[in-house]
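User: Let's play a game. I give you a shape written as tokens, and you guess the letters that built it. Ready? Here's round one.
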């Protein structure tokens, strides 16, 4: 029996929507820690397709469908503050490419310097290296949501179909949709 505290990791993101790439990181990351928390945040600079409540509901349904041993929580504010509140010592991040690495590296160094929290990176699986939520939104706005079935869980596909008017409206409101 170990007296060391549990290794709690946070996998933060807007998850708007959650993709199969996110699920890949969750599946591979869950075994690395005693507890993995999927932390659904908001980013005021991004155009939202789904509300935080809708995203939480979808993620919970997907996690249940996949029988994954993780928890799901929403938060507002800085990720490092939420990590402290949940006693997480690690932030889990997925990397798709060199651009992700440059951005995530800067965040990881800052998080360690200001909050003493480490970052663990998992490279995305090969099928998901090009997938981003912004790309998903753009394809969906073009009208054929079924084409996204290899990139998104079925729960997300269903919700996108149910909200096709919202998707079309979001794409009209911006030339570039954020990830």
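Assistant: Ready! My guess for every position:
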């Amino acid at each position: 029996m170990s007296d060391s505290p549990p290794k709690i990791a946070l996998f933060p993101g807007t998850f708007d929507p959650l993709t199969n790439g996110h699920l890949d990181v969750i599946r591979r990351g869950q075994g690395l820690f005693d507890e993995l928390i999927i932390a659904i945040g908001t980013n005021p600079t991004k155009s939202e397709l789904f509300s935080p409540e809708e995203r939480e509901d979808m993620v919970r349904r997907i996690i249940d469908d996949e029988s994954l041993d993780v928890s799901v929580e929403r938060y507002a504010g800085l990720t490092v503050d939420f990590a402290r509140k949940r006693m997480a010592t690690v932030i889990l991040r997925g990397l798709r490419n060199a651009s992700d690495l440059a951005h995530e590296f800067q965040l990881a160094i800052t998080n360690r310097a200001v909050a003493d929290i480490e970052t663990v990176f998992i490279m995305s699986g090969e099928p998901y290296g090009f997938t981003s939520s912004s790309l998903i939104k753009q394809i969906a706005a073009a009208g054929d949501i079924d084409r996204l079935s290899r990139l998104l869980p079925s729960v997300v596909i269903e919700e996108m179909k149910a909200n096709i008017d919202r998707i079309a409206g979001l794409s009209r409101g911006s030339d570039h949709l954020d990830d």
